[in-house]
Automatic annotation (TrEMBL):
Record-annotated Carboxyltransferase domain positions: 1-209
InterPro entries membership: CT_C_D, Cyclophilin-like_dom_sf, PxpB
Cross-referenced Gene3D superfamilies: 3.30.1360.40, Cyclophilin-like
Organism: Staphylococcus argensis
Protein name: Allophanate hydrolase
Highest taxon listed in the record's lineage: Bacteria
GO molecular function: ATP binding; hydrolase activity
Keyword field contains Hydrolase: yes
Keyword field: ATP-binding, Hydrolase, Nucleotide-binding
Keyword hit for Membrane: no
Annotated PANTHER family: 5-OXOPROLINASE SUBUNIT B
SUPFAM superfamilies the UniProt entry points to: Cyclophilin-like (SSF50891), PH0987 N-terminal domain-like (SSF160467)
Length: 235
């Protein structure tokens, strides 16, 4: 575990392991532990794929808690925590995501399979076979970065130009799959569409997926899915 400063009011814990579900659970365990202690000077905890940033109010620590060096205090605190603390996910459920692959719903799939030198059915089999996990959240509210994709589907390029990508688009970027939660413009490679609404600001629990959740895709035909207000990708 590596600990280093990120500016004058944040510290980063980096767990130097390959991105995996176990690593994500280590970070979640650390976050849960810190939150349970309710440190009044910790203002935000931001986990990513392989590290976590803890923001703190240095002025408050010096003024009200007589802490001469907030960074050294935080460093010693984090070093004292044993990561044997386990993250308990009692809701160990695989979230099934229905996906319509290809055609207008996944306009980049036809070109991708040519590069892979496989047909679309083989691609769908490989993309739906793994159980993914949410290794990071970002880009837009509730946007899940999903790790666990078949290595034969990795890509080292993006789309040729930015275009409209509707919410619910299933995309590939590098070694990961993602699902857009808002309408956007980008150069992601769009392979399909899910009608599930993963971000709903009208709800108190506004994101359907959380860091560490398990996900599996299930291929669907357009006629078997309620599409709602779907708008196709545009070039």
């Amino acid at each position: 575990m590596k600990i280093y400063s990120q500016g004058d009011q944040a510290i980063v814990v980096s767990i130097e392991k390959e991105v995996s579900k176990d690593l994500t659970e280590d970070l979640l365990a650390l976050r849960k532990y810190l939150l349970s202690r309710n440190y009044p000077f910790i203002t935000e905890i931001v986990p990513t794929e392989s590290d976590m940033m803890i923001c703190y109010d240095a002025r408050d620590m010096i003024k009200h808690y007589d802490i001469a060096s907030p960074y050294l205090y935080m460093k010693e605190l984090l070093e004292s925590i044993q990561l044997e603390i386990k993250y308990e996910n009692h809701d160990d459920v695989i979230n099934e995501i229905p996906v319509i692959y290809g055609g207008q719903y996944g306009p980049d799939l036809s070109e991708l399979v040519k590069d892979y030198q496989i047909d679309e059915d083989t691609f769908i089999e490989r993309h739906t076979a793994p159980t993914y996990f949410v290794s990071m959240m970002g880009y837009s509210p509730g946007f899940p970065y999903l790790t666990g994709m078949d290595e034969s589907l990795y890509v080292n390029y993006t789309g040729k130009k930015k275009s409209f990508i509707p919410a619910g688009s299933v995309i590939i970027e590098g070694k990961k799959t993602g699902i857009t939660t808002t309408d956007t413009y980008g150069d992601w490679l769009v392979i399909g569409y899910t009608p599930l609404r993963l971000f709903d600001p009208s709800k108190s629990d506004f994101t359907s997926l959380k860091l560490g959740d398990s996900v599996q895709f299930k291929a669907q035909r357009p006629e078997d899915v309620e599409l709602g207000g779907y708008q196709p990708c545009q070039s």
